[in-house]
C-alpha cells in the first residue's frame, strides 16, 4: 500500500469516528457586510463525541445557517468551527447531511442514490451492494430499489435520503429538519428509528428542529436559540433514559421538561413575531 | 404507486391504431400536398413552378439510382455532423465552465450575448475568406452557429441546479470535479438536450445555406445547381429529401432525449 493510499485509508477511518464539534464565537451576516442581516451572533457551543444535540428555535433564528456552517457548505465569516479532523473549511464525508427534502439525485434510482456515497467512501463493489441493501431495508424501502425519486412519495424520498447518508456511516450526522415534511405517524417511527440507530452506531448528531417534543424525544442536550439575530439562549440537558420509545411521551418528567422548554421557546417565538412588525 | 413500478410500461396502442393516428395527425400535410397537385393541374400556377408529384417522384428515383442524391447527402451530413459534434462538445464544456467559474463567466458572457442573436449565415463570406471553398469552411460555420444554443442551454441548466444537490454530493465525499461531472452535468441535462435540439436544427439550416454559396457538392449545392439548370422536379425532389432527413433526425433525437430523461417521468 502506498503512502497516499494509507493516508486515504486513515482519512476514511477518521470520517467514521464520532467527533466532538466546537463552535467558537461564530457570527454570520447575510447580504453585503455592514448593510446585511445579522443571522448569527456570537455562537458558542461545545458538542461532545457521540452526543445527540438538537438546535431548537423559531424559524428565521439561524439554526439551519449554523448547521450549514458546521457542514462547511457556507464559509465561516467570523469565529471558528472545528472537529476531530481539524478546522471546518469545506464539506467532507466526516460530516454528512440530511436536508429537509428534495436532495436525492432525481436521475438516479433509490439504489444508485445510496450507492453514490458508498462509492465515494471507497467501499468495494460487494460491500457497497450489501450495505446499500441493508440501509434500504432499514428505512423500509425494500422493493423500491429501482424506483426513481419522482416515483416515490415525499416520505419515501426522505427515507431514501436518510439511507443514503447513514450508509456512508459518517462520524458526524447533520440533520436539517429531516422529518419536517413527513406525516405525523411516519415522523414518529422515523424518530424512534433514528434514536435506535444512533444508540447502536455511536455517532455525533446535530439535529435542527422547531418542534419541542421532537427535540426532547431525540436529544441529550438542546440548544435553544433566540429569534434573529440567532444566539444560544439556553442549553438544556435532557436527563431521560437512553433507550426511548413511545412510552416516554407519557413520562411526567418528559412532559414537564417539554412544557418548560416550550415556555422558553415561546418567548423567542413571540419576540420574533414582534420583531417582524 | 406500485402499479407504475411493477407493471411493464405499456408500449402504447397497437400498430394499426398508431398508423391511423399518425395519418390523422399529419393530415394537414396531406391536404397541402393535394392543394399543390390541384394548383399545378388547374393551370393557375405553371407546372414549372409546382411540378406534379409524379414528375418529382420519377426525378427522385433517377437521382437515387445514379447516386447523385446519396453522394451529396452523405457529403452534407458529414459536414453537419462534424460541426455539430464539435459544437456540442465545446459548447457543453464552455457552458459548464461559465456556470462554475466567475472569471469564465465574465470573459465569455458578453461575447455569447452579442453573438447569440446574430444570424450565423452572415458569416458565410467570412469563413470562405478564412478557409476557402473546402469542407473546413462549412464545418467551421456549422460549429460556430450550433455552439451558442448549446452554451446557453448548458449554462442556464448548470446555473439552475438545486444547491442542496451540490451540497449533498460534497458531504458524501465528492470532489469539485466529481460534483461538476456527476451532479451539475446530469442535473443540467434537460436544458443541455433542448439546446442541442436547437443546434441540430441550426446545423441543417447552415449546412444547406452555406452549400448554396460555397460548395462543389452537397445537398445545398445539388438543389441550387438543379434550380439554375431549370430541372425543377429534381430540385423539388432534393428539397423534399433533405426536409425528410431533417424531420427524421429531429424525431430520432427527441426519442433519444426522452429516453435519457426517463427519470423525469413518474
UniProtKB/TrEMBL annotation, chain A:
Keyword Transport: yes
Domain ABC transporter: 21-252
Keyword Transport assigned: yes
Keywords: ATP-binding, Nucleotide-binding, Transport
Superkingdom field: Bacteria
A GO molecular-function annotation: ATP hydrolysis activity
Family label: Belongs to the ABC transporter superfamily.
Protein name, as recorded: ABC transporter ATP-binding protein
From TrEMBL, chain B:
Keywords, alphabetical: Cell membrane, Membrane, Transmembrane, Transmembrane helix, Transport
Database matches in PROSITE patterns: ABC_TM1 (PS50928)
Cell compartment(s), UniProt: Cell membrane
Membrane topology of the entry: Multi-pass membrane protein
Major location category of this protein: membrane
Residue span(s) of domain ABC transmembrane type-1: 73-253
KW Cell membrane (keyword) present: yes
GO cellular component assignments: plasma membrane
BP-aspect Gene Ontology terms: transmembrane transport
Source organism superkingdom: Bacteria
Membrane-spanning parts: 15-36, 48-65, 77-99, 111-133, 139-158, 199-223, 235-254
SUPFAM superfamilies, per the entry: MetI-like
Family as reported in the entry's similarity comment: Belongs to the binding-protein-dependent transport system permease family.
Name recorded for this polypeptide: ABC transporter permease
Organism encoding this protein: Ancylobacter mangrovi
Amino acid at each position: 500500500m502506498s503512502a497516499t493510499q494509507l493516508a486515504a485509508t486513515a482519512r476514511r477511518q477518521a470520517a467514521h469516528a464520532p467527533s466532538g464539534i466546537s463552535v467558537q464565537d461564530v457570527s454570520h451576516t447575510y447580504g453585503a457586510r455592514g448593510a446585511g442581516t445579522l443571522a448569527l451572533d456570537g455562537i458558542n457551543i461545545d458538542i461532545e463525541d457521540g452526543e445527540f444535540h438538537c438546535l431548537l428555535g423559531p424559524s428565521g433564528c439561524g439554526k439551519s445557517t449554523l448547521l450549514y456552517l458546521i457542514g462547511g457548505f457556507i464559509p465561516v465569516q467570523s469565529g471558528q468551527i472545528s472537529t476531530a479532523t481539524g478546522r471546518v473549511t469545506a464539506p467532507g464525508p466526516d460530516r454528512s447531511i440530511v436536508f429537509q427534502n428534495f436532495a436525492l439525485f432525481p436521475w438516479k434510482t433509490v439504489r444508485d442514490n445510496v450507492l453514490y456515497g458508498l462509492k465515494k467512501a471507497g467501499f468495494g463493489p460487494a460491500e457497497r451492494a450489501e450495505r446499500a441493501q441493508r440501509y434500504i431495508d432499514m428505512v423500509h424501502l425494500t422493493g423500491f430499489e429501482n424506483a426513481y425519486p419522482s416515483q416515490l412519495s415525499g416520505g419515501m424520498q426522505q427515507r431514501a435520503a436518510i439511507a443514503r447518508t447513514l450508509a456512508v456511516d459518517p462520524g458526524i450526522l447533520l440533520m436539517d429538519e429531516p422529518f419536517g415534511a413527513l406525516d405525523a405517524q411516519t415522523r414518529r417511527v422515523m424518530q424512534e428509528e433514528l434514536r435506535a440507530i444512533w444508540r447502536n452506531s455511536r455517532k455525533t448528531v446535530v439535529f435542527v428542529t422547531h418542534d419541542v417534543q421532537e427535540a426532547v424525544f431525540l436529544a441529550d442536550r438542546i440548544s435553544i436559540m433566540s429569534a434573529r439575530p440567532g444566539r444560544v439562549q439556553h442549553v438544556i440537558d435532557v436527563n431521560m433514559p437512553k433507550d426511548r420509545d413511545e412510552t416516554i411521551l407519557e413520562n411526567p418528567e418528559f412532559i414537564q421538561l417539554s412544557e418548560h422548554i416550550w415556555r422558553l421557546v415561546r418567548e423567542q417565538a413571540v419576540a420574533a413575531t414582534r420583531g417582524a412588525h | 404507486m406500485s402499479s407504475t413500478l411493477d407493471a411493464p410500461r405499456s408500449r402504447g396502442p397497437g400498430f394499426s391504431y398508431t398508423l391511423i393516428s399518425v395519418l390523422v395527425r399529419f393530415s394537414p400535410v396531406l391536404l397541402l400536398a393535394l392543394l399543390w397537385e390541384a394548383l399545378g393541374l388547374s393551370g393557375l400556377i405553371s407546372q414549372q413552378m409546382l411540378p406534379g408529384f409524379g414528375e418529382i417522384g420519377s426525378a427522385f428515383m433517377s437521382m437515387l439510382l445514379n447516386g447523385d442524391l446519396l453522394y451529396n447527402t452523405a457529403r452534407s451530413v458529414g459536414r453537419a455532423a462534424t460541426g455539430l459534434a464539435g459544437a456540442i462538445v465545446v459548447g457543453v464544456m464552455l457552458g459548464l465552465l461559465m456556470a462554475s467559474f466567475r472569471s469564465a463567466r465574465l470573459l465569455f458572457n458578453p461575447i455569447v450575448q452579442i453573438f447569440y442573436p446574430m444570424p450565423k449565415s452572415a458569416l458565410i463570406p467570412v469563413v470562405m475568406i478564412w478557409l476557402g471553398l473546402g469542407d473546413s469552411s462549412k464545418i467551421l460555420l456549422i460549429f460556430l452557429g450550433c455552439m451558442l444554443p448549446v452554451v446557453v442551454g448548458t449554462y442556464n441548466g448548470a446555473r439552475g441546479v438545486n444547491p442542496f444537490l451540490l451540497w449533498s454530493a460534497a458531504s458524501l465525499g465528492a470532489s469539485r470535479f466529481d460534483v461538476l461531472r456527476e451532479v451539475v452535468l446530469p442535473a443540467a441535462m434537460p436544458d443541455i438536450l433542448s439546446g442541442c435540439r436547437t443546434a441540430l436544427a441550426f446545423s441543417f439550416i447552415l449546412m444547406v445555406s452555406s452549400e448554396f454559396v460555397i460548395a462543389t457538392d452537397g445537398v445545398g449545392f445539388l438543389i441550387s445547381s438543379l434550380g439554375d439548370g431549370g430541372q425543377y422536379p429534381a430540385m423539388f425532389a432534393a428539397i423534399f429529401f433533405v426536409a425528410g432527413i431533417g424531420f427524421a433526425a429531429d424525431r430520432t433525437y427527441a426519442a433519444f432525449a426522452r429516453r435519457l430523461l426517463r427519470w423525469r417521468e413518474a
